Amino acid sequence: MNALNQILAHYNQWITIFLMVSGLYIVIARGNMIKKLVGLSLFQTSVYLLFLSSGKVLGGTPPIVAAGISVYTHPLPHVLILTAIVVGVATLALGLALVVRINEAYRTIEEDEIFAREDKA
Amino acid sequence: MQAQLPALQVVLPLFGALLAAMVRRSRPAYGITVIVSLLMPVISWLLLVQVRNEGPISYVFGNWSAELGIEYRIDLVNALLLVLVSTVGAVIIPFARKSVAAEIPEDRIAWFYSVYLLCMCGLLGVAITGDAFNVFVFLEISSLATYILIALGRDRRALLAAYQYLIMGTIGATFYVIGVGMLYAMTGTLNLAMIAERIVDIETTRPVLAALAFIVVGISLKLALFPLHVWLPNAYAYAPSFATVFLAATATKIAIYLFVRFLFSVFGVGLVFTDLPVSFILIVLSVAAMFGAATVAVFQSDIKRMLAYSSVGQIGYITLGIALANLNGLTGGMVHVLNHALIKGALFMAIGAVVFRAGSCAIEDIAGIGRRMPITMSAFVIAGFGLIGVPGTAGFVSKWYLIIASLDKGWWWLAFLIVASSVIAVVYVGRVIEVAWFREPNDALKGVKDPPLEILAPILIMVFAIVYFGVDADLTAGLASEAAEALLAGLR
Amino acid sequence: MTGASLIALALLIPTATSLLIPLFRERPNMREATTLVGAVALFAVVVLLLVEVMAGGRPALHLVDVLPGLSIAFNVEPLGMLFAVIASGLWIVNSLYSIGYMRGENEPRQTSFYVFFAVAIAGAMGVALAGNLFTLFLFYEVLTLSTYPLVTHRATPEAVRAGRLYLMMLLGASMLLLLPAIAWTGFTAGTLNFEPGGILSGKIGNVAMAGLLALFVFGTAKAAVMPLHFWLPAAMVAPTPVSALLHAVAVVKAGVFTVLKIIVYVFGIDTLAEAGASEWLVYVAGFTVVTASLIALRQDDLKRRLAYSTVSQLSFVVMGAAMAVSAGIIGSGLHIAMHAAGKITLFFCAGAIAVATHKTKVSELDGIGRAMPITMTAFLIGSLSIIGLPPLGGMWSKWWLMLAAAEQGRLFVIFVLIASTLLNVAYLLSIVARAFFAAPRGGAQEGKVSVNEAPWPCVVALSLTALLCVLLFFLVEIPQGMLLEITQTADPAGVSIDE
Question: How far apart are CA B22 and CA B17, in angstroms?
């Protein structure tokens, strides 16, 4: 019973870890380049959730100064993760741009097709 | 001005990048790049001199205390890296103009230089900052810039290489973030020096160990430690020549700096090397890199690829020195950071010159090129000697330290492995020499001759440095030794 | 002139020569003159150094500290002086010969040939004058790298393959065996300097000492101790001046000189003798002597026969050093000089025959003595020196080696000396006999055969070296005295000359 409570108490971490692993799996297992980027995004987002959820102060409001509020959620994870989100967005944008150019160059975005073509060349 | 130097080291290339992007035309963009590239070493050397005279420099942004804000902390270790990156950047910039103009379409050249300056900003930022998350930001700035630099290569496979590196690099960076997050959760601070202080009591707790694992794996991806090196050969082979020169000389070296910073300064020698088997794992991987990568290099038909695999092997030497974790070993590793940057810079520039003149760097295409481009290929040969570790070249200095470090630990078998792997380098360098000098030049090479002075000069400067630092290693080995001592002493 | 500046000149002159030669690429006569001037200048400097060393001086020069504990420094002592004199003196003769040979055979790319020659000589000077193991190693590698383009000079597929074997064997052995040996020595002894009496006494156990010696001997693949000798016969694809250089002047002598120097100045004769750490080497070297001679007997290609003869003769030096006794050291040192003179003569003759008649095989040499009397007489003289008969210099080195063997009651060494002498007679004098007494092949003309010698620079060169073989017999006191000096600091009981 105690063990079950332990597990349930950290439900946020279990969920984020599940998302993390799924994201990684998609990156590795899928050959479509856009799907890989989706997996990568999923992986990165789960990491954000991991830290944001850990930083949550129960009963606290979002960390924006407002009159009358005394309990705020810890702001530092938010700051860090905002930065990380920006980086993630930039990476995604760059990745998608690359995929567009790869599509122009190869007429496909399936990795196995591209490798087959390069091996023959 | 003196006090603001740490900030300027990062801000100048950042604004340079913006300016270059705004001017849109290739000539002014190149001009801006030259100005920034020449200012960078001035700042770095001033910082180095200051650190050597006065001790570590601490610079806080916006006057927020280190506890709350971002601190730039410069000691002997990162001063060395700053000097390396900025000096290399300054030496290679004359090479860029004609090489870049030949390989990249006219309308993209300004963007190329803009992104190049961003990359330099990112690399310098990683070295100079003392805040763990700031490291991530700069790391990603430099990485994103690198992906773009690679993707601008002529061959369409450059796009694939950039994409592959993007995926792997982002995973690595995210692992790093996970590690830093855990460290933050356990210590309550992101400042490297403070983490080092607060971690002492909680060293063996699971989150800290997990953080160590994540950070090490994440950085290993960036530094192309075997077996996480898969992105490197393609990236170096298909990127524009100038980009390869810069990246080969600097990018992995900055990742190595990060590696040693975390292992020695933050987590500490005691935890990492005495309590945990990190040393053993690193040695195994390093030896695998030294032998495996060098062997694969022998069979490559594209010379850039061959040099890329050679780089993976040489990084193995550096991590071997780190794994030995004694003064000689760390000195050997750090001095090889410097020496390898010079050697690989010279080699890739020589091949870049060949590509500039002959259009290709496939081994069959460059048969007999030694007779047509004697100065370039002679430079290649001498840099190749540096790679092999012939005494009288800088490469020998690194190998000597590593051998003595192995003997210090009583591991004579490791000393033997180090020299044995150097013999493999004889084979792949010898192959290029044979093809370049002992075959008749084919018709495609008619009219090929040595490149113009602006391309040749940086090559000759680097080759001269390789020989000079092989004969008088006072500067390089001295700095490396001081850095090694600082690392072993830790940040506490 | 101070000793230090003489040492600096000894290194600068060949280096400067190598840099000046390309300037005259369009004017062959000026180019050749540069080489000759450089060679004569170098010999003059070396003789000045010799005078100082014979007077008891030990000139030294400290150039630079590469790392703490590793420095490039020079220290001239009698053994190194001997090698330097041989190398620089024979460079003059070899250059003269090269002029005749390269022009006679119309070899391509002669400028790069002379350039790398000069660099190789600079390397040999560095090896001869080195004051510590690191400096020796540095110039040893310079020698390997600068002679590679010489070996592969003709750029035929065969030459490229030979060059590959040459480079891999020499670099491989030096990096895998010699470098660890140097590191081990530095680590154990705390220094890499050459000291009379050695730097290892009391610091290393007997078995470890034997192991270290093995690393040194096999790491010095230029000494061609079996089984690391394959590069020598393969290198015969090079033009003959290169073979003469390799076999008499620079490369192989650098190899055995290194072994001898290490035995005397790193291990120390007494330390070695006490530990018995070089016993195995006597047998390995002796084995090489006999086996290589047997192989030489079966070679039809003249240069290959001479190559295997060299492998055999080199191990005399190693064997003499391995006996770890004064007489042996003197014999070994003398043999470096005697064999140099004898072998260079033989190679010059082989090359002269090739230029004049395009014949390279022993079976083709019937009756050639009539067409090339001077050459074959020189060949006879060189052979007799190698065999060890008076009045040729080679007699003295074999004398001392025999003395050392008798002193220690080594029947094995005596057997090796006798057997190899007989084999030398068989594979060398048979050539002379054919040349003078057999009828020429392919329709012998009765009566006069016209004299058709090689170009005059070649003939002059080989006559000079043949003369040297004779002179060395009478002038042996000079090298002998120098070598006695070294052994006396190690063995105060001394060995007297007059037996």
Answer: 9
**C441 pLDDT higher than 50:** yes
Domain count, chain C: 1
| Closest to C212 measured CA to CA, from C264, C270, C278, C256 | C278
Considering only CB atoms, which chain A residues are within 8 Å of B179? none
Residue B308 to residue B244: CA distance in whole angstroms: 9
* Residue B399 identity: K
C395 within a domain of the structure (yes/no):
yes
> Does the model's pTM come out above 0.80?
yes
| Residue bearing the bigger pLDDT, A60 or B476 | B476
Amino acid at C60: A
Judged by DSSP in three states, C438 sits in coil
Range of the domain at C445: 278-499
* Percentage helix, strand, coil for chain B under 3-state DSSP, each rounded to 5: 80, 5, 15
When CB atoms are compared, the residue of A43, A47, A105 closest to B156 is: A105
pLDDT digits (tens, 9 = 90+) for C447-493: 555 677 888 888 898 899 999 899 888 888 888 888 888 877 544 44
pLDDT in tens, C15-44: 999 999 888 888 888 888 999 999 999 999
| A-B contacts (CB, under 8 Å) | 70
The residues of chain A scoring below 50 in pLDDT are: none
Tell me the helix, strand and coil percentages in chain C, rounded to 5.
Answer: 75, 5, 20
- Distance (Å, whole) CA B361 – CA B315: 23
Count CB neighbours of C354 within 10 A. 19
**ipTM of the prediction:** 0.93
Strand partners, C74: C61, C130
Mean pLDDT of B54-62: 88
Are B144 and A99 within 8 A, CB to CB? no
All structural domains of chain A: 2-120 (1.10.287.3510)
Q: Which residues contact C171 (CB under 8 A, 6 or more apart)?
A: B388, B423, B426, C141, C144
